[in-house]
Amino acid sequence: MRTRLKSIYFLASLALLIVTASCRTEEDLSIDPPTEQTLEANTQTAALMQNVVMNDGSSDNIIDNASCLSIQFPVTVTVNGITLQIEDEDDLDDIEDIFDEFDDDDDNIVISYPITIVLSDFTTVVINSDDELEDFVEDCFEDNFDDDDIECIDFQYPITASAFNENNELILSFTINNDFEMYNFIDDLDEYAAVTIDFPITVILADGTTQIVNNIQELAMVIEAADDSCDEDDDNDYDDDDCDDCTTDLVTDVLTQCSDWYIDGLERNDNDLEDNYMGYFFTFNSDNTVDVTWDNGMQTESGTWSASGSGNEIIFEIDIPGFDDINDAWNLHEIDNDNDDDELEFELRIGDDELEFNNYCSSDNSNDNLTNTLSDGLWIVASYTEDTDDQTADYAGYELNFDSNGTVTASNGSTTNNGTWSVLNGGNEVMLNFGTDMPFLEFNDDDWDVISSSETEVVLQDISGGDGETDTLTLQKI
Length: 478
Known about the structure:
Elements: E1 2-3, H1 6-22, H2 44-53, H3 61-64, E2 69-71, E3 75-79, E4 82-86, H4 92-100, E5 109-111, E6 115-119, E7 124-127, H5 130-137, E8 153-155, E9 159-164, E10 170-176, H6 179-187, E11 194-197, E12 201-205, E13 210-213, H7 216-226, H8 248-256, E14 262-268, E15 271-272, E16 281-284, E17 289-294, E18 299-308, E19 315-319, E20 328-336, E21 343-350, E22 353-360, H9 366-374, E23 379-386, E24 389-390, E25 399-402, E26 407-411, E27 416-424, E28 429-433, E29 445-453, E30 457-463, E31 470-477
Antiparallel strand pairs: 1-7, 2-6, 3-4, 3-5, 6-7, 8-12, 9-10, 9-11, 12-13, 14-15, 14-22, 16-17, 17-18, 18-19, 19-20, 20-21, 21-22, 23-24, 23-31, 25-26, 26-27, 27-28, 28-29, 29-30, 30-31
Helix pairs in contact: 2-6, 2-7
Keywords: Signal
Protein name: Lipocalin-like domain-containing protein
Signal peptide: 1-21
């Protein structure tokens, strides 16, 4: 059922009209509206103003894939099996976090109906199914199409206006407080002989600066100049604006505050290459050099890094001899340093190629606690399962020695497997790398989650991003 919100506004305006008209004096009869302030119905200026204030539906495209309508909050959605209550636009980040958790899964979102949508003219419609919603989505412009709304400029409210009859008598005064009221004010211009805006007014540009406008003609020119001066983000790429506030200073601050960044994700030409860099650690220095260590510090290499541009257009260049997989001019996609677990994520992209560096900066001493636990004595594989496949027998007779210098050996008396290990994320994750040694290459992972730990037992778990398979490794002290 459609409901015209503007009817409320019209009735209020009508009441004000009656009161104002009844109080009119002789002085009101000969007011000539100033032409430089007069806004006429069905003119280009009126259309431009209405395009500025029409309801922009692009902010919630992660849910509805439609920029010409928005969903009225709160709304309940189920994202990849997780139910969320979306109270406002800030909660949309929770949906994105779930979508971004894995790169190789199929993301889906289920809306709990009924919901209410708001169209570009602020009309509201109650929707009861996906099919009903799709009927309205199909009426929208296609993804990345140049639609009517102008998002690169906004009005600063309040704005006052006056209405006149055919005798140039002032019959009504308006105070406009938001885009909804401005849209309906312009929609009703033809109900009056003349309408004037009380200039000067102030507009807000896309970069946050303000500009004072002194008359109708100037207002039209300012709006036209602002149109298409920014990215209106009317596409369905929900994560292409994650670096709106990024600067090169932020890049430097984030990268240089911690040493030993590691590659958590690397995809080039549809090939996943991050496993090739397990045990490699990158330290980005403030002089734009980068040092790489691997094989427990036995091997090193140095190169350079640089960042230029701003916002979503920052280019991050890496040049390290021998590291052709990552040497390139990448586009900075996102810097995420707001996680509760102190995880820092630095994400780069070139088209469909992705490179992600991760790190942990924590004042917690839990890293040291688990490191001390594992490096104290010998351990055995008490249990290892890949989902429902129990492979514990493959590790029978092996004793593991976790050295505090970051090396680990697994020996059964006749065969020795050598690898590296480290504790991350305040003791919440463990990295293991045995290279290609069988059977311990099955343990290779840089983010084993620590499910529980004691002086005699440590339980680790990893959930695959591809098929959701759960690997569980239980280490027991001898």
